[in-house]
Amino acid sequence: MTVHCEIDGAVATLTLARPRSRNAIDTGLLTALEDVLQRLRRERAIDVVCLRAEGPVFCAGTDLKEVAGMSVAELEHWQARAEGLVQTWQQLDATTVSVLAGPAIGSGAVLALASDVRLGVEAAWLQLPELQHGLPLTWHGMAILCGSLGADRTQRALLFGERLELHRLQQWGCWDAVVTPDALDAALVNHVAQIQQAPALARRMTKRALRGWCGMASHHDPYLAAYAAMQQGHLRSDAS
Description:
The protein is α/β, with parallel strands linked by helices. The protein has 10 helices and 9 strands.
């Protein structure tokens, strides 16, 4: 299994389980995430969903070794599914929490920022290197980044492809907690307890209201997928 799902009462914990591939998202992992999120959407008893990963890297982005062999049409379809996955994660009624024990790159960074609450260790960082390799940002990433960082910071993060340390994100008000590795599990327990102090129904209603207010609609552009396919060989899914 490339995604483990553990349920403890009203809390579900999803764990990306491709550590040898730095949890890069291939079709198998994408499908597993789609399936488990659809299941969780039907589970009304679940009111918090945590997303973690095995190994030292949260997610190294799209598994380009796999998608490099896809046709433009296949890649366009794959990216539409990927965008839908991020939107499903955003639109869960449950409160979502990303938990980073290591870096998140490209689509991995988008997925981490798409969570309602974000925790991570001091050594973790985010990076969006697409433009340095001639690729546009997909995965519904522009909407996620502008919503989290603002337009100006999003533009700079994309133009320069620099590593965004979690402490800096916390200073910007878009990261909730930065802790030592030994304190990460305790921080998660503490944040989940704080989240659950608010009634689940009130949290669901608030998320729905925010989605409507922020206009979370699809921005999928087939041109981006086609262009990305042409430039695919120039980007490496790399956490080094």
